[in-house]
Amino acid sequence: MSIVLYRVDDRLIHGQVTVGWGRALQPDTIILVDDEVASNPWEEKLFQSSAPEPLKVSVWSSDVAVKEVQAVQSSEGVAFLLTRDLKTLVGLIERGVEIPSVNLGGLHFSPDKVQVLPYLSFSKEDIGMLRFLREREIEIDVRDLPTAEKKDVFDLLKAKGLLSH
What we know:
Elements: E1 2-9, H1 15-25, E2 29-33, H2 35-38, H3 41-48, E3 56-60, H4 62-73, E4 78-83, H5 86-94, E5 101-106, E6 114-117, E7 120-122, H6 124-135, E8 139-142, H7 153-159
Parallel strand pairs: 1-4, 1-5, 2-3, 2-4, 5-8
Antiparallel strand pairs: 6-7
């Protein structure tokens, strides 16, 4: 199964994912990597039922993702991989999962974050993880929907005074 979209979105599965990205990229499966959801059978079933037929949802812990992503990438079909936060995505990369690009689609405001777009806010820790991605030459695609204009995350951070270089 070719993973055609690696997305960080704190809302996980919602209309932008299933309708916007789903129509554009036609996945068979959404792989939701989230330790909290994977450890809660009720939440897991809720997310599995949130995608329209015939789209399937697989809920994996980070440990399962580290073991299974490579096998999934060589099987038939098309998938999206979603994480709730940058920390989970970076953790996968640190444990050997090869991720060529990431779409930042929704990291919403909280008191410890600075908002750079209506749907994108970052903490100091998040900025460090973005630098981690850049150092590994992982493409960072900032847009909520596939029809939106791509934005450069580091230009957005500089405009908000969050980066000096």
